[in-house]
Amino acid sequence: MKTRVVVLGAGFGGLELTSILSDAFGDAIEITLIDKEDAFVFGFSKLDVMFGRRPAADVHHRYRDIVKPGVRFVRSRVRSIDPAARRAVTDAGTFEGDVLVVALGADIDPAATLGLVEGGHEFYTVSGAIALRDVLPRFERGEAIVGVTGKSFKCPPAPSEAALLLHDYLTARGRREATKISVVMPFGTPIPPSPDTSQAILAAFAERGITFVGDNQVQALDPARNVAVRSDGTEMPYTLFLGVPVHRVPAVVVESGLAADPYGWVPVNKSTLETVFPGVYAVGDVNGVGTPKAGVFAEGAARVVAAAIIAQLRGGPKPSPYTGAGSCYVEFGHDQVGRVDVDFLSGPKPTGIFRPPSEALVAEKADFGSSRIKRWFGQPQPLLG
Ligand SMILES: Cc1cc2nc3c(=O)[nH]c(=O)nc-3n(C[C@H](O)[C@H](O)[C@H](O)COP(=O)(O)OP(=O)(O)OC[C@H]3O[C@@H](n4cnc5c(N)ncnc54)[C@H](O)[C@@H]3O)c2cc1C
Question: Which atom of ligand 1 is nearest to the CA of 106?
């Protein structure tokens, strides 16, 4: 009998895990990869789409193109999960595994912030990015706020990147003098584990006249008065609001009992990513391991789980524990990319080493994307995002 691995969610974590297991076992394993969407989109591609740097069609990587032995992709929505039985019910049937991997990411909930849907925009979904692509050309003058609305959100550098890219966009259109840009964020500095990266981002903001408001969230918008209300009670006028919506644990995961509530990310063993249910793992944004919500950490977690499955099936030594380490690229605008190498779990406190923006890092980021697509989909794709 082949070992059956059911992977819920074909994002960074699910795709990485599936690829490693397929490469290791080929047809000798049975992997079912389930996702409600028909294509994968990198988080950073949403910035490209909103600023018109790439057409939306270019950044979708179709799951039907996955060519991997031992892997079956099922496009369907997961309706319920029974972790004790390692079983998931979907619109396309019920799937049971010897191993169940929950990699369903974080859900985005714009409606959780009063006034955001009616009076603002978000750039955390593809549809939000596409809507902004059409809105930005009409932004001529006034105040733009890039505002984070919850404490836990994907890709901590993304709001800063959005502000820096907005600066370039408005400058190119000759509208920068008539506009103001502010960033509101729950942290005291843009990238808390890396003072050097934070300092570089704050210097870039200062150079470009971008205002940074730390230790704050936007808790509501009042579209009638065009003001954003911060968690410290201050009101900020806005013409254009670019929001990072509230993130929450997918409802199906909460209903399964794997998470206690919509803001309680799935508890896991920090070394192995296993949940309290034997043979059930939670990788990526959905877990509460303590790393930021970013693709590189989802990928690192998937590697640890894959190593555990390989060791279990081949009888090898126990894999090394998860270290929560990864490198995040940071768009600095002016066609420059920097990098921060962070390590969350191996030392007494998180650390982050800053690599200043360079052309070499622009190329490295492009290679980061294209190498994943090649590895995950099993064939080079003509368009990469
Ligand atoms: C603007 C922006 C920029 C970013 N930039 C970066 C970056 O530069 N570097 C970086 O590392 N990370 C970046 N990220 C973060 C990164 O995209 C996420 O952290 C990463 O995708 C998380 O991987 P995951 O596998 O946990 O979840 P995801 O990649 O979100 O995958 C979860 C999958 O589960 C599926 N799913 C959810 N619910 C169901 C259901 N009920 N049934 C079936 N399928 C379901 C979803 O369709 C999705 O495909 C960025 C994010 C944003 C929004």
Answer: 30
CA distance 82 to 6: 12
At 105, list the tokens.
């990411």
Helix (H) or strand (E) holding 78: strand 78-82
Q: Which ligand 1 atom is nearest residue 326's CA?
A: 11
Cβ–ligand 1 contact at 77 (below 6 Å): yes
Comparing 202 with 380, which gets the higher pLDDT? 202
Looking at residue 335, what is its pLDDT?
92
Distance 12 CA to ligand 1 centre (A): 6
Asked if residue 42 lies in contact with residue 107, where contact means CB atoms within 8 angstroms, the answer is no
Phi, psi at residue 362, to the nearest 5°?
Answer: -60, -45
Decide: 385 in ligand 1 pocket, CB within 6 A. Answer: no
Structure tokens, 220 = 């509501």
List pLDDT tens digits, range 11-43. Answer: 999 999 999 999 999 999 999 999 999 999 999
Q: 244 C-alpha vs ligand 1 centroid, how far in Å? A: 14
Half-sphere exposure of 58 (CA within 13 A, CB side): 16
